[in-house]
Amino acid sequence: MPKKLLAVLLSLAFAVSCLAACGRSQESSSSAASGQDDGLVTITYLLPDSGTPEYPRTLDRPNVAKMVEMIKEKFGVNIDFETYVSDPNTAALMAARFASDTLPDMVNYAFPQAQLIELYEQNQILAISDYWDENGPDIKRRMTVENPYLQAAHGDAEGNVLRVCSLLGNIQHRINVASIRHDWLQELNMEVPTTANEYYDAIKAFQDNDMNGSGLRDEVYTGWRAAFNRSISSGFGVKWMQTAGDSFFYDNNNKVYHTMLTPEAKDYFAFMGNMAAEGFLDKEFINQTGDMYNEKLYANRVAGEAGAWWDSVVYSNMMSNTYPDSHFIPLEPFIAPDGSQSIVKIQMTGYNGYMITRSCKNPDKAVQVLNWGYTLEGMQQDYYGEFGEGGDYYEKASYPGLDLAPQMMSYTEKGRQAADEEPALWAKMGWNGHFIPQYALGKADDIAMEFFLAFTPAICGRAAEIDFNMTKLNKIDFDIGIEGIGFAAPSPDQSSKIETYSDLILFMNEETDAFLTNEKDVTKNWDTFVEQCKRMGIDDYVEIQQARYDKYLNMLSN
Known about the structure:
Blueprint: H1 3-21, E1 41-48, H2 62-75, E2 77-84, H3 90-98, E3 106-108, H4 113-121, H5 132-135, H6 137-146, H7 149-153, E4 164-169, E5 177-181, H8 182-187, H9 196-208, E6 220-223, H10 225-232, E7 248-250, E8 256-258, H11 263-277, H12 290-298, E9 302-307, H13 311-319, E10 328-330, E11 343-345, E12 351-356, H14 363-372, H15 376-384, E13 394-396, E14 409-411, H16 413-421, H17 425-429, E15 439-441, H18 444-455, H19 457-460, H20 466-480, E16 481-483, H21 492-499, H22 502-516, H23 522-535, H24 538-557
Parallel strand pairs: 1-2, 1-3, 4-15, 6-9, 11-16
Antiparallel strand pairs: 3-12, 4-12, 5-9, 5-10, 7-8, 13-14
Helix pairs in contact: 1-3, 11-22, 18-20
């Protein structure tokens, strides 16, 4: 046998043995010691460990034991599980396991979509959608009706759904916005900005009046690379802009176009370039790290930020000890020059990846178990453990005047005390362990209560007020929010063609970064930029995206 081949086989064998041994114990299955229970089917299951070494995911965790017991009672299934520790070697270990003869019936691991499809084409995994009519109605409803983008994100180009994800989200997870220092606005008697130009005027006023007292014009608008394009560009009529490989949208005739090549995008780049030229924009946002951002934050230099809605309360709280009066406030999407106001809501793809493998002899039962996580009961049991009216650690959450989502729970007095005494209480109890997938969509009411109680207006100002968050988030979600574009998974031929446009994407990102930071004047270089994009094949790339979008729409209609 050639030495190279022998080395590969030995390494694969070692990887499989490491993965198989990393989590299984004699107590991992409730019937491991006594043999198969009468009337039960056994399903073997590989899932991530808790990530907390002192509390590994075993039957010693009360909620893990409870989940195994409930699955046995509800579905006649004995779960025989083992765990793996997520680290840089996990991808190689998982690939080795799928190539072995010791493949469990279910696996929770988030393969990239292209690899997921490859596994299906190799008959390594089964299509969940083949079994959901009778065994997974909640999965089917949520992935095809409530959130149809999940069908495309976790399936192939033909609409076969190949895994189940977890999805716990709300409108906060679907938007990026600009924020601003509300205390500085109040000190200067300025109104909260509603347009990009008003935002420019506010940052300028902060520098003109040396609001941080440094003696320098160093109060800046900063944040994170992708969030910049998502948070301000809508104020110029751009429907959706992220990085060059993701900046596609559709017009009123469902015709796909690249949003970085529109007149509205040119206006946005010109505005941002002017912000940079005047010193109001922090040019380091292109490659910003957490340490770089925190250095500016604690130096009291951040006048505003591009990021998540919750950033305002988080950063106000972080600064409260050093600058107790500093309050950020998240802003509505800016009103465009034509008077319109809109924001595209990011498609939520979920996380984790629950698959049924070729080894499973009872895929109907496996889908029933996974489907339980898409019910309110299953989601709450996995997330909270013991709960309910008069519950041990949790009880149903409520707050006067708020209509909270049904999955919302809050600590009992015992729960609060236990959490104070044990910082790793969740890992110790096995709560939120994603033993099964979880699905629940939150409401603005949930966010308003969380901000008010956890961050408090006393520390974070208006950004933690209930009425403020209720009003703004419901407006964004239901009045001015637009559903994001979706694409069917690319075919192998489309994937190959998309890879050939890597130089185009790199060019577009580099050029637009130069426009944003005023390294290049967009008004002088725009025509050259557009022409070069066309020479490099942007029109053909858009055609591929059009075909994927058409297939996605057809998938939804069916």
